[in-house]
Amino acid sequence: MSDILNKILSVKAQEVASAQAAKPLHAIKAEAQAQTAPRDFVAAIRNKIQAGKSAVITEIKKASPSKGLLRENFNPAEIAQSYAEHGAACLSVLTDEQFFQGNTEYLKQARAACNLPVLRKDFMIDPYQVYEARAMGADAILIIVSAFQTPSPLMGEGRGEGAATFNLTAMQELEQLAHKLSMAVLVEVHDGLELDAALKLTTPLIGINNRNLRTFETHLETTIELLSRIPSDRIVVTESGIHKPEDVALMRNHNVHSFLVGEVFMRAADPGQELARLFG
Ligand SMILES: O=P(O)(O)OC[C@@H](O)[C@@H](O)c1c[nH]c2ccccc12
């Protein structure tokens, strides 16, 4: 139970409880419904791909549990503008405070500074957070399948083939609510069992995280290995560990044209210029 993801999830459950105590569900619902219509996250990705380009979801992330502080001079509005100028398809903004030094305000600032659709990057476990996402202006949410693993009574901590099951009903509830609020859903997987569960959702956006959220080890082969199992009507988004033009070429040679990239951009003096350099 001591892996990083489990730690994050237990803190998250407490955060949701206290957020809901401070602002009840009916109040956050009203805020979500008062927002103007979301920007079309899926269309932004499709348009880039149809134009023969890479569709890059550029991330705004101040720190991470594995790497610590990534960027000293952290100005979300400036970063968002720079990404938009240099051809990003969408933004991803971390809102988790405890582990990623994210903030709701960062998402609002970034979104106000450009016209790109914005993903709320957080650990979604409860419908309350979906309303919260829309209330802060988000256009898309992330559903991380491994966060919905139900512990098998037959297994210890590890996970062998066939051992894991996932709370599909809970994932579907979040997806349906996001869609009801006109937001897109990026569903994230790291292995074949998670992929089987993800494919039971209806969203076209399948993220393959090259990083294991339990150990934080990152291997680009994770994407390549799962590709053949994904039907052609879904859009594969390769996530994490993309650092070099060769990494981009590897993915594009395997017909993967959508990317979620954070760290290399955060470490660059000008994140947008780094985007142009990496994908140019
Ligand atoms: O910084 P990187 O290695 O380019 O990765 C970006 C993104 O994929 C990563 O931040 C991420 C992917 N899935 C997540 C889930 C939670 C938090 C973070 C993530």
TrEMBL record:
It is an enzyme of class 4 (lyase). GO terms for biological process: L-tryptophan biosynthetic process. This is Indole-3-glycerol phosphate synthase. The keyword Lyase applies. One of its GO terms (molecular function) is phosphoribosylanthranilate isomerase activity. The gene is trpC. Pathway: Amino-acid biosynthesis; L-tryptophan biosynthesis; L-tryptophan from chorismate: step 4/5. Belongs to the TrpC family. Keywords: Amino-acid biosynthesis, Aromatic amino acid biosynthesis, Decarboxylase, Lyase, Tryptophan biosynthesis.
